[in-house]
Amino acid sequence: MPSRERWIKLLGLGTIIGVAASGALVARAARPRRDYERWEITERLHRRYDEARERLEVAEGGVWGAE
Fold first, then answer.
1. Helix and strand counts by DSSP (H, E) for the chain
2. How far apart are CA 66 and CA 53, in angstroms?
3. Alpha carbon separation from 43 to 10, 55, 59 (Å, rounded)
4. What is the mean pLDDT of each run of 10 residues along the chain (67 residues)?
5. Please, what is the Cα angle at 41 between 37 and 49, to 5 degrees?
6. Of 5, 9, 29, 34, which has the maximum CB count within 10 A?
7. What pLDDT score does 63 carry?
8. Would the CA dihedral through 37, 42, 46, 52 be positive or negative?
């Protein structure tokens, strides 16, 4: 059976690895939010909404040339 000191070292190593992994996940999750300014996100959402409305209007109009 491993000695008490060895268990303490393993526990400390596990803690360090856990903290590093958590920090990496937090940094990865925060990165996309920092890539865009608030006004850029708003502009993109408005553009996507307008494109979706145009596609809906085309779809509601039926298939072109099928009259």
1. 2, 0
2. 22
3. 51, 19, 24
4. 83 91 80 76 95 88 62
5. 165
6. 9
7. 64
8. positive
